[in-house]
Backbone:
């Protein structure tokens, strides 16, 4: 039997590329051939910002190759990424199949691991070539499950949400989540709190597409989401939970943080030196991920809240996060170096595992959530959109790993929550965070659930490859 050749294709977004590159490395360690596909725009960005990492990962793994595909966007007006991800995905779905077919043929691909965000992109091609199609859903199991349940929620009139006054109504028809989720915790898109029908159609298409694949991979672990996973398994019998992927990879490689970076922004490592000068668990790490944008007012509420809390903070403010570039300068000038440091992009995994970090003020992106879980760092959640409101609800209400400031942006709330997490309720949150971090580690160590599931997945890929 020939070595399986797996094509891995992430959606063009930071969290997706990071995670799927880690999956690629885990499969490379097991000696599989990997073709890692990115859009040209993302590939060029990765190369320009991480050239040494791309070179060394290619040297380290001769069975890895990078390929590119057009994103079919107007190059002059290229708006970047994140903000136009939905357009890019639609264009690739519309025009990308011939390029994908060429790669499958020329590289003799025997299995496709496709980001679930691409929906049906490869369904027909996999059938045509008789190869396996595995969907990688980069979100939490709870998000996959709530999307799956959307038709039922519509039938029961639980959605659409009827307005702002309806936001605290409990959602009852999601098995495994009874009495946990309110309307305000549902995934949301755009600026509206309502889940409009176009978006609803899209998430339903993704669910249908995943059902048509041969298997589904989730970046989660059994102990974190077991009641939801047992519900999902009733519909997706071939489900591989192999996360937290970054921790799985680091454990397998016996390192403490990623050896290869896939950043879309230039990393500022000065923050690591600054952290060295801070006392144990004294710093609040603040980051709202790779796509969140904020208004001047919102930024100022957080800034005053952090200053008033009197706790030191390390804050990531991307250049494209605020319209008004002067604002970042203003904040820097108004913050003393001992109390706070603002950087454009941090080595987040490394930051979270630093002994000086006491809490994470996060937008509750799924990767950030998992990275915090692994390091046992309690969270203050300020979810922005998409799956984040659901993640933050699980963090606060189900796992008791932090506080959820959803839909509120107020300096007093920021100050109080920082003090609750760092001082008043420190013991309680530290205890639950340490317990969950231990379970995460157990899952990726030999004989843990994610470890065993990865072995099963590899066995499945090998046994089904022609
Ligand atoms: N990240 C990073 N440095 C930063 C901010 C974020 O390396 O300064 C990484 C973070 O570790 C995570 C990813 O970017 O892996 C963000 O993914 P997430 O799912 O949390 O949020 P998204 O960016 O998709 O909203």
Residues:
């Amino acid at each position: 039997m020939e070595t399986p050749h797996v094509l891995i294709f992430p959606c063009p977004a930071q969290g997706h590329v990071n995670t799927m590159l880690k999956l690629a490395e885990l499969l490379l360690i097991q000696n599989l051939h990997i073709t890692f596909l990115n859009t040209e725009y993302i590939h060029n960005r990765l190369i320009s910002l991480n050239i040494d990492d791309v070179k060394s990962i290619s040297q380290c793994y001769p069975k890895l190759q990078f390929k590119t595909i057009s994103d079919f966007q107007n190059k002059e007006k290229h708006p970047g990424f994140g903000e136009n991800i939905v357009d890019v995905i639609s264009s690739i779905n519309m025009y990308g199949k011939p390029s994908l077919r060429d790669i499958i043929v020329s590289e003799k691909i025997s299995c496709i691991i496709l980001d679930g965000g691409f929906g049906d992109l490869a369904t027909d091609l996999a059938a045509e070539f008789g190869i396996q199609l595995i969907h990688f859903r980069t979100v939490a199991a709870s998000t996959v499950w709530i999307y799956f349940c959307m038709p039922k929620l519509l039938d029961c009139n639980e959605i659409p949400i009827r307005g702002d006054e309806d936001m605290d109504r409990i959602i009852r028809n999601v098995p495994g989540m009874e009495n946990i989720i309110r309307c305000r915790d549902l995934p949301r898109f755009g600026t509206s709190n309502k889940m409009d029908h176009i978006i609803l159609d899209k998430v339903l298409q993704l669910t249908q597409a995943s059902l048509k694949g041969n298997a589904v991979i989730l970046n989660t672990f059994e102990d974190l989401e077991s009641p939801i996973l047992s519900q999902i398994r009733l519909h997706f019998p071939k489900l591989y939970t192999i996360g937290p992927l970054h921790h799985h990879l680091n454990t397998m490689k016996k390192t403490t943080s990623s050896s290869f970076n896939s950043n879309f922004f230039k990393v500022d490592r000065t923050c690591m030196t600054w952290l060295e000068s801070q006392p144990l668990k004294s710093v609040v790490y603040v980051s709202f991920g790779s796509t969140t944008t904020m208004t001047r007012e919102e930024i100022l509420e957080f800034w005053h809240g952090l200053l008033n809390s009197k706790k030191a903070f390390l804050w990531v403010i991307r250049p494209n996060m605020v319209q008004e570039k002067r604002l970042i300068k203003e904040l820097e000038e108004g913050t003393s170096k001992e109390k706070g440091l603002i950087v454009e992009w941090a080595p987040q995994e490394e930051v979270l595992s630093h002994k000086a970090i006491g809490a994470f003020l996060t937008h509750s992106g799924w990767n950030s959530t998992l990275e915090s879980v692994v390091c046992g760092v309690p969270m203050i959640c300020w979810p922005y959109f998409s799956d984040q409101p659901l993640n933050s609800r699980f963090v606060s209400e189900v796992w008791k790993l932090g506080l959820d400031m959803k839909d509120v942006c107020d300096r007093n709330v920021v100050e109080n929550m920082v003090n609750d997490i760092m001082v008043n309720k420190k013991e309680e949150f530290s205890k639950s965070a340490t317990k969950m971090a231990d379970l995460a580690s157990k899952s990726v160590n030999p004989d843990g659930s994610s470890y065993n599931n990865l072995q099963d997945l590899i066995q499945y890929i090998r046994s089904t490859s022609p």
